[in-house]
Amino acid sequence: MSNGGNVDDEFFRYSLIEAVRVRPQLWMKSATKIRGSRRQLTSKLWAEVGSITNRPGAECRKIFKNLIDVKRSNDKKLKNGFLAETKPKWKYYEVLNFLNVKGSRLHKRYIMEK
């Protein structure tokens, strides 16, 4: 995996975010109501994301989880007033705002499911 400053790595991360955004079953709890085949569905969707980004689905899942963790950390700082005067400067913060849609909750289990 390349380092965080690489242009290819940045393109990959934006591509990854977009590929996940258009698959709400990976990040929206209300979109994953199929109980029996949830694991198969999420595995299939992560494989699709991997195919789009030319990386293994498991690697995409791990990197996306890391992006989410950083976003959550920034959200906590905003909520607690540490960043009240300014928006977070992290370059992926705004593009990940789809995770803040009212009625959706990121469900860690769906991302980490293997």
From TrEMBL:
Looking at the record, the residues that make up the MADF domain are 15-104
InterPro entries from the xrefs?
Answer: MADF-dom
Which PROSITE patterns does its entry note? MADF (PS51029)
Tell me which domain of life the UniProt entry assigns to the organism this sequence originates from: Eukaryota
The protein depicted here goes by the name MADF domain-containing protein
From which source organism is this entry? Romanomermis culicivorax
Q: What is the lineage of its organism?
A: Eukaryota, Metazoa, Ecdysozoa, Nematoda, Enoplea
